[in-house]
Amino acid sequence: MEQFNRNITGLTPSASIEFMAKAKALQAQGLDVINLAGGEPDFDTPAPIIEEACRQMRAGFTHYTVGQGLPELRARIARKLLEENAAPYDADEIIVTPGGKNAIYLAISTLLNPGDEVLYLDPAWVSYVPMIEAAGGKAVPVVLRYEKGYRIESAALEAAVTERTKLLIVNYPNNPTGKVLTRPEAKILEQFLLRHKDVILLSDEIYERIVFDGNTTVSPASFPAIRDRVITVNGFSKSVAMTGWRLGYLAAPRPIARQTYKLYQHSITCVSGFIQKAAVVALDCAAEIEAMRASYAHRRELFFAALNAIDGVEAMAPEGAFYAWVRIEKGDMDSFALCNYLLEEAMVVGVPGESYGSGGAKCVRFSFATALEDLLEAARRMKTALDKL
Ligand code: PMP
Ligand code: GLU
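That is the input. Now the predicted structure with glutamic acid docked in place:
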């Protein structure tokens, strides 16, 4: 008998987590490494959120909670989705999860039967494919092209769809490319769903509050004709600097939410009550969220100017999220070799572009949710290292 589930032994480890761990291990050895690998805000969680969590813990709100999330939190999330995203979901269509990652995992596991196909846009965050494969599904990339600014094209979706396609996953603002979902692209998705009546769309909007230059990103659930087939995922990690709290949610049409909740009951039970109470406060932290966004915007400007001043480096300013997705045309190295070279020569850690799929060739991802002086020092060191090639 095989010892392990084949779906799990075949998975690739998470590149972002592996490179974050590598950078931390080197820092622990006392090396002066600049860690731009992890997608994690460097800000502390805003004080009112921490105070509310402490207050609730002291008040004894430390037991199991029952249900798919506290009613007051689900009602507040439903209001947020309607007011900020024009996405109408009832509170009973919302499930509060330990992180957006878990929300995506639950939805995928609930929907897929072995051999079902899932389309995803490549370059893609490193965890979609493994989650699909863990559920026995087949991940089918729709490769978006660097030369075309990674914009969605209807023909590419049509070329990839089959009668086995169950789900399409999109993520905007995008990790790693920094693109937002424009209205014409959202229309392409809507038309695609209207042509393929069995396909469900999962929209991962975890970076939704981090946008630049007046850009906005469209929530597909705001299109009435397809709302009943759209699962929207969001969370608190990125927008309110709450990565370590592990808090996110999914909003799904009622039949999908009902099935997903059974898996949740049997695997998670609930999210800590005091964390959920603090999340209600987090949804009202508009000023704190805007201050962080403005700081990312400032860092983006200076970091990108420094990166683009390096010979052989091209960095397109992102429309949203906090990643520099940098194309490096130097030497004859793939993105893994490039990252190792930058680590050894410049002591700067990024994540190889090919971890995000074939659309990531020659690219490296650097997070700029990092102190400005570290970003500028990283760019200086990279210039010295790359000028040697
Ligand atoms: N989606 C994307 C695209 C991400 O980059 C992340 C960050 N790891 C997540 C989902 C999940 O974030 P979390 O589980 O911290 O909410
Ligand atoms: N989302 C972050 C990243 O892409 C954190 C690590 C992870 O969950 O992948 O770096």
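The chain has two domains: 6-45+287-386, 47-283.
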